[in-house]
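Sequence in, structure out.
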Amino acid sequence: MTAIEGTFLVTNADDASATLRNVADSQVLTLSDNPGLEAGTVIEATLSAEPPMEVTYELADLAAEREIPVAVVDLEPTQQAKDIAADQPVGELTTQERAGTGELHVLTVTEGEATATATEVADDEETVARAGRLGVDRVEIRTASGVVSVRYLPD
């Protein structure tokens, strides 16, 4: 029996089944039974393929389950983020490791688009998937004119 251990984003869940995406390689896996998982949560687990076809999985071991909040906050980007944005053209993204755990993403956008871009980033399930991959506890999105800062942070 094939087993897969990793961190997974629950992309869909109902009473009968759940769909998971491995945050490391984006492999999509279906659980034939939902043991109570909710869409949008991140789990650390071991999945076992169900015989004979091994196309669906069961949750063999659930090590951790957490919800990673993503929030657009009413704060300006840090000076570091503003400096990065000043050196890059509109439409570019810079990714930088944070001291300790996490990452900083700085996007430059056209004037007047920062709020809409922040909302898109907050609503994108890939934001939560990346947070799960990085092992952080929350995501904070800050905006200023022409700048969106996405901070992947420990608690």
